[in-house]
Design a protein that fits this description.
The chain is mainly beta. The chain is 10% helix and 46% strand. It contains two helices and seven strands, in the order ββββαβββα.
């Protein structure tokens, strides 16, 4: 039987990305993303609802997100949902739903280049903070229609 676990969000980075390393030396970067939904109540009142997501990236993608993402920047993240569970110091069990991203697109003018694990591993990202040509992006800060996943 087939199954699918895929999440796609567009929103604003809510925290500065935090990079750390596994005991094996693999980089992992996590950051939060806020998405907004505006709706009208039956009484005609406009309301805005904000949903927060935890995003986790690995390896070269983690390095790129740590280097180029900043709080407040618009971002597209795509990946799979994963529930992480752990036991706290107080003995209580905790859990958190995370998006394990395999593709991140920086939507602001500063770095409007898509990054994915595959492209990052292929070395298509320049060194020293220089962003190389990775994909069709159109004008700086704009996405081409074929880059929008829906």
């Amino acid at each position: 039987m087939l199954s699918l676990n895929k999440a796609m969000i567009i929103g604003n980075v809510g925290t500065e990305p935090e990079m750390r390393f596994t005991p094996n030396g693999n980089p992992v970067t996590s950051f939060s993303v806020a998405t907004n939904r505006v709706y009208t109540t039956p009484d005609g009142e406009r309301r805005q609802e904000t949903e927060w997501f935890s995003v986790v990236t690995w390896n070269r993608l983690a390095e790129n997100c740590n280097q180029f993402l900043t709080k407040g920047q618009r971002v597209y993240a795509e990946g799979r949902l994963h529930t992480r569970t752990w036991e706290g110091q107080d003995g209580q069990k905790h859990s958190r739903l995370e998006i394990i991203a395999n593709r991140v697109i920086f939507l602001d003018k500063r770095a409007a280049v898509p990054f994915s694990e595959e492209r990052a591993e292929e070395g298509e990202v320049g060194e020293g903070g220089e962003v190389g040509e990775v994909g069709e992006v159109g004008e700086v800060g704009e996405l081409a229609p074929e880059d929008i996943p829906f």
